[in-house]
Amino acid sequence: MVTDVIQALHGCQRIVITTHIRPDGDAIGSQLALALFLRKLGKQVEMINTDGVPDTLEWMEGAETIAVFEGTFEQRYALAHAETIIVVDLNALHRLGPVLSDLVRESEAVKVLIDHHCRPEPWHDVALIRDSAAASGELVYELIQAWDSGLLRGPIATALYVAILTDTGMFRYDTVTPSVHRMVADLLERGSRSPNQVYAAIYETRDRRWPRLLGHVMKTLVLRYGDKLAYIVIRQRVLEALSATSEDTEGFVDFAMAVDGVEVALVFLETSKGIKVSFRSKGSHRVDSWARSFGGGGHRNASGAFFSRPLHDVIELVVTSAPKHTGLLQAGVLSPEDRVYLSMLKSS
Fold it and tell me: pTM for the complete prediction?
């Protein structure tokens, strides 16, 4: 509850705010908004994450104060002596990263969770959780409104606008309600940067390698199950050849989802440590339980999982399991085209 979080934070001075690995717009926006707000209240706030701020979000005010955890004495001291540790935008503690998650778990600080994912783990002391919320930023907005709405101005409003914009797919997901639009209107009235400024800063600053990478990746597009499932494959060697990173692939799943008739889309991203699979769906077709069956998780329509297996094995495992986990698809086996593609992957 909002009142529980306010009560937990009201009397403390030393606060650390953190979020999940590979932070997105909702994670960074929520973290920044909360930090800027609490600093205005005179509190000592530090932000420490396992991974850095994405290039597309570095322009946000306060982003330069988000530290990447390097295990320094100062960082460990801040975590060990924090009165409260706030974790935003994740439901499983391990998603903080292996070292940071252990430090948070072992800390004697009051642990506060602000999140909108399904089935959060019960490691926290106080929580503001609602899985129907469009973004964690929506919950941070409600917290600030209830505590001191007069401080919800300028950079704080912009950070929350970014959080909601990015986690709703630019306001196109089912979690977008009339109340979300009213919230966004309020943020704009309170001094958020304009929609065209925010959109341009996030989505119109692509490097020249981006269109070439997109062209390579879209050549891998495969349609399955009556063309209702689409998947694309991003090979590590392609990223290396184009001097690209996984950050450059953000949004590629939207191109697969844009194909007429596609209602479920998958992205198989090959990394040096394993295969990251992103699950996306439209409407009432849930993918969170599908991802959880592989040790992952996330939202109803956007989830992820990680595999330490060869790429071709992961593709076959995930694609053939689709009928079991989605009401949309009828049971079937890999098509001849899929098997040819998997054979090519194996031989390469």
Answer: 0.84
